[in-house]
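Forum: Protein Structure Q&A
Topic: Joint prediction for protein chains with partners

I've read a bunch of threads here and the consensus seems to be that you should model interacting components together rather than docking separate models afterwards. I'd like to see that in practice. Below is the full input, 573 residues plus whatever partners are listed. Could one of the regulars post the assembled result?
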Amino acid sequence: MNQLIPITQLALPIPAAISELAWQQAQTHHSADARWNFYLNQIATELLAEYLQEDFPQLQIWQESNIWQFVNGSVLQLNHKRIVLLPSRAIDQSELVIAQEWLDIPDWAGDYFIAVHIDPDAEILHCWGYLTHQMIESKARYDPIDRTYNLDAHSLIADVSGLWAIRSHR
Amino acid sequence: MRQRKDLIEIFAAFLQFESDQPGLWAIDPRLHRSMTRSVQTEPRGSEDFWATYWLRAYRQSTAQSPAQRQSIGHLAAYLQETCFWSVSRVMPRMGSIQMKLSDCFQVAISDVPKLLQAFDVSKPTGLKAYANTVFGNCLRDCLRQRKEIDFCSDWGLLQKISRKRLRDALVASNFDAARSDRYDLAWQALTSNYSSVQSPKLRTTAAPTAEHWELIVASFDRERQKFPHVSAATAKELEQWLLDAAKKVRSYLYPTVNSLNVKKGEDTEADWEGDLVGNDLSPLEHLEEQENITARQIQQQQMVTVLHNAISLLDAPSQQLLTLYYQENATQQNIAERLDLPQYSVSRKLTKARSTLLKAILVWGQDTLHISPTSDVIDGISALLEEWLESFYTRIDRPTELS
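Posted by a regular:
Agreed with the consensus. Here's the joint model:
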């Protein structure tokens, strides 16, 4: 399945042990939503931090305990920029849903947002697009019922390699 | 495949397939007449000029109007070769998935309306390089999803789709708002109350147990209060809706191909003619347009020189990786086997080699053109780079923006 992911994006194998452990730990949460948030974000931060630290040793994981009970998303900090990871288990990459906290709470707000698909069956993590804060503000639709910002897949920059290029160029 | 040279054909003809091979070009009569008229009013226009012209006409037209369909038609014709190359590049990587070349082509080309909507004219790239990337991604997405969907039970499938995909599938099945809302609420109740304790794996998910149904029904009943037109439902009813939803989602991914290619439109000739007049570029604008095009061509020649240099400066293993990947179209798995490397390290090294080239262009752009590398700029340049690498290594006579 990896071969159907272009090299301009990023695909990482999910080791079975990491997947199983994350799922076990997720079971302490009561709702299925919270369990999935925990599992997906745990895997996304662990694998992506490890991958990116090879090129950016200064990269850090932003720890805020228990947010996954209510909100999907986690943050990597790189040179004073906040990269928000938004993992999902949906195989169709038809939209990106962003909890409003990631834009509207000043201490939380991100500079970059990466769409991450995590497939627990194929055991693959796939970064399929990214956005800047400004792009979300200009292109997203706000959903007042779910309190989320929603974007069509076509509004994302599909070339994730460009994001690492920006970060290392400066 | 015969590449088109005639201007009118480029904006009015569509690739046909015979025995799943590219064959003749079929002319759409209305597009042909529209393009002939346009060329008569502006005989100096080049291919680039007309691409810009129809893009502008697309931007200026209202959504779903005849004028918009007309410009989409011309641009879909214009992008036929790009689509074909893009699809040819992805197809050898399909693995076990069975899909014909002509079907793959249709999947990609039917993305043109969305692609045009998202295309940012201020990007440093032209439409073709952008479309090359989008067509490839669109086909890859479709193939990945079809493969996954074949593995999934109905209950697994429902756990592995987005809410948007569900709603889209219901709209495509002509559901009215009330019925869509019922299904949507049932789906939300299912996905937020049903998960396995043992494993995160979803493909073979079984039907919920009686205990889970109790939770699902209770959750549905709570959430439906916000929707006065949705009444209470039993577990049996919810199950029935959800299984029906799974069926709709499955068939949504295997659409009967509704092709843009030589599609009999609903517009009359008069609808199109009326709109044409207002869209004419003035002679002055035309001149500016041509100057922009020339300036861009000069920059792109310089960019090619920068790239040749950058490639020659790469170390031998990186050059070998790029050759295997772009020239032989080898999969990363295949490269890993041949070079006796773990697959993740192949992908890492490939990405690195490619990003060295990308950075070389960015530095050049910043130094000589004073373009600062924002996300949009990088995205556009990366698309140009991808198209160029594909044609540089394969040496196929394929028109690209950087030639």
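The CA atoms of residues 44 and 139 of chain B lie 36 Å apart.
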